[in-house]
Amino acid sequence: MDKILAIVGPTGIGKSACSIELAKALDAQIISGDSMQVYRQMNIGTAKITPSEMQGIKHYLVGIQDYRDPYNVCIFQKKSKEAIDQIQKQGKLPIFCGGTGLYLKAALYDYTFEEEQKDEEYLRLLETKTNEELFQLLQNADPQAAEKIHPHNRKRLIRALEIAHGGITKTQREKEQEHKPLYDVYFLGLTMDRQKLHQRIDQRVDKMFEEGLVQEVTSLFADPKTWEYTSFQGIGYKEFKPYFEQKATLEEVKLAIQKHSRQYAKRQMTWFKHQMPVHWFEKDDPKLWESVREWYYG
């Protein structure tokens, strides 16, 4: 099987810098596994890697999408597989770097996302239902999916009902996939003391504000029509909504971004620990390099 290195871990821990060092050592190219760095105009709030930070290493899926256009795991899966092919054709090692777990799983495992024709009439019908009614419908249509979805998670309830309405339930679809890696993937996870990580995250948000985050967000999202964009839903952007509505100060916005970033880091660690066979290292641990070399050179 073809080898792929995936560098994972919580936001703000230093995955990008680590990926550059490993790419230089292993003659590799990097694919971003981040759901927000794809947007062209969004640089500060996404902590997007800069051209100088890339140090001449070719990167894929960074700044390829207009912020007004929707982006999702389906699009990412297609584009990431194209990137893998391009890198392998050059005889180089693909390195994924990012913390969006579902995106990485879609790229590296046997996940299939079928193109579906939306039944707009059925969706309009679902929108008229209460959460309780939606949950009852799902219990009837796909009881196993209902066990995994919170009765008040309206978005997921509607999505599961939409899938079941298409003739195959979410549960059936998942059973047909083995959820095995398609490559010889080495999942390298970066970890550190939680308090230190929280300090790094808070400092990074402070730096974003110093670098002009307020101006960036204002130029892109001051118009309420933009608040529905997929790109606005990311941490570092959505927190500005109450500021635009004159219901929060910039200091309150900053504190909210820091808090949500810390919470997201915790969710990322939990997700990776349960979903992938990650080899965890402190980012400055010399054993990290030894383990990657041993896997790569065998």
TrEMBL record:
<feature type="site" description="Interaction with substrate tRNA">
    <location>
        <position position="124"/>
    </location>
</feature>
<keyword id="KW-0808">Transferase</keyword>
<dbReference type="GO" id="GO:0052381">
    <property type="term" value="F:tRNA dimethylallyltransferase activity"/>
</dbReference>
<keyword id="KW-0819">tRNA processing</keyword>
<dbReference type="InterPro" id="IPR039657">
    <property type="entry name" value="Dimethylallyltransferase"/>
</dbReference>
<protein>
    <recommendedName>
        <fullName>tRNA dimethylallyltransferase</fullName>
        <ecNumber>2.5.1.75</ecNumber>
    </recommendedName>
</protein>
<keyword id="KW-0067">ATP-binding</keyword>
<feature type="binding site">
    <location>
        <begin position="9"/>
        <end position="16"/>
    </location>
    <ligand>
        <name>ATP</name>
    </ligand>
</feature>
<feature type="region of interest" description="Interaction with substrate tRNA">
    <location>
        <begin position="34"/>
        <end position="37"/>
    </location>
</feature>
<comment type="function">
    <text>Catalyzes the transfer of a dimethylallyl group onto the adenine at position 37 in tRNAs that read codons beginning with uridine, leading to the formation of N6-(dimethylallyl)adenosine (i(6)A).</text>
</comment>
<keyword id="KW-0460">Magnesium</keyword>
<feature type="binding site">
    <location>
        <begin position="11"/>
        <end position="16"/>
    </location>
    <ligand>
        <name>substrate</name>
    </ligand>
</feature>
<comment type="similarity">
    <text>Belongs to the IPP transferase family.</text>
</comment>
<dbReference type="InterPro" id="IPR027417">
    <property type="entry name" value="P-loop_NTPase"/>
</dbReference>
<comment type="subunit">
    <text>Monomer.</text>
</comment>
<dbReference type="Pfam" id="PF01715">
    <property type="entry name" value="IPPT"/>
</dbReference>
<feature type="site" description="Interaction with substrate tRNA">
    <location>
        <position position="100"/>
    </location>
</feature>
<dbReference type="InterPro" id="IPR018022">
    <property type="entry name" value="IPT"/>
</dbReference>
<keyword id="KW-0547">Nucleotide-binding</keyword>
